[in-house]
């Protein structure tokens, strides 16, 4: 089964989101000359200014950043397994494989499986249908109900594609349908979703992040960023609004697997 991620989305009628951004080259800032001081006192020497380094690297530093698709800068700081374990756990159940998540029974009939169709009834009365295509071709797709993100007012469906996978959000209020790259995680205040997708080997799916803001009509893309040197295996949020990411890496030249690493992302606020 072979197709590109973009080709399958075209077959599904899902619009791809904006193209990804890239880091700016590292720039060394020149330390300004200290002002002259009276002869009676010691000279004042300015502290060195650290060079901002791309966080799309295997070796992390304490002053890494990522440039997003809308030109903002995300601070990426090294952190620990202990910090990860204390962060907010994922509210979604296990990823469905061949059947819908049992949590579909908790939707009060608003989400239903009708043969090859998965239907969602929004609060405004709109019904959205995700229809399976089980033909043996590049447009094949099977939708499975994954679960709910109540703080963000979203139902989540996983789409198994001919090659790779996709994720679809259905707004519980309006029925807006939004395709995202991968696993959605909701911020503690319910105002944002950070979607993460890791695919370093097969490269069927995007490898990186998307940040979406929850608007009255539904989620809206704020920025997205693809990565080359590591993948976000999982994301958790902290109460202070930062996100903790479990990083995974591709095999080294010798074939060895690098252990996971944990970093904290300080996300800039969405622009009006």
UniProtKB/TrEMBL annotation:
Residues 24-43 are annotated as: Disordered. Keywords: Signal. Residues 25-43 have a biased composition (Low complexity). Residues 1-25 form the signal peptide. This is Bulb-type lectin domain-containing protein. It comes from Hymenobacter nitidus.
């Amino acid at each position: 089964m072979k197709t590109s991620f973009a080709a399958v989305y075209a077959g599904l009628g899902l619009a791809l989101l904006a193209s990804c951004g890239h880091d700016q080259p590292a720039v060394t800032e020149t330390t300004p000359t200290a002002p002259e001081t009276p002869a009676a006192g010691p000279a004042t020497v300015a502290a060195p200014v650290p060079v901002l380094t791309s966080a799309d690297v295997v070796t992390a530093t304490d002053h890494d950043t990522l440039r997003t698709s809308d030109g903002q800068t995300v601070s990426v700081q090294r952190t620990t397994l202990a910090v990860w374990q204390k962060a907010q756990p994922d509210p979604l159940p296990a990823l469905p494989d061949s059947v819908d998540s049992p949590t579909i029974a908790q939707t009060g009939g608003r989400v239903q499986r009708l043969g090859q169709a998965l239907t969602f009834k929004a609060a405004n009365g709109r019904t959205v249908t995700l229809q399976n295509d089980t033909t043996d071709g590049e447009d094949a797709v099977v939708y499975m109900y994954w679960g709910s993100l109540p703080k963000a007012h979203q139902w989540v469906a996983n789409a198994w594609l001919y090659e790779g996978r996709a994720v679809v959000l259905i707004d519980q209020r309006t029925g807006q349908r939004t395709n995202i790259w991968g696993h959605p995680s909701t911020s503690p205040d319910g105002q944002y979703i950070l979607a993460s997708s890791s695919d370093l080997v097969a490269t069927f799916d995007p490898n990186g992040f998307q940040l979406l803001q929850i608007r009255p009509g539904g989620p809206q893309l704020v920025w997205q960023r693809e990565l080359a040197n590591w993948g976000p295996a999982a994301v958790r949020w902290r109460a202070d609004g930062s996100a903790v990411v479990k990083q995974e890496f591709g095999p080294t030249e010798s074939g060895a697997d690098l252990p996971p690493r944990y970093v904290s992302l300080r996300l800039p606020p969405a622009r009006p």
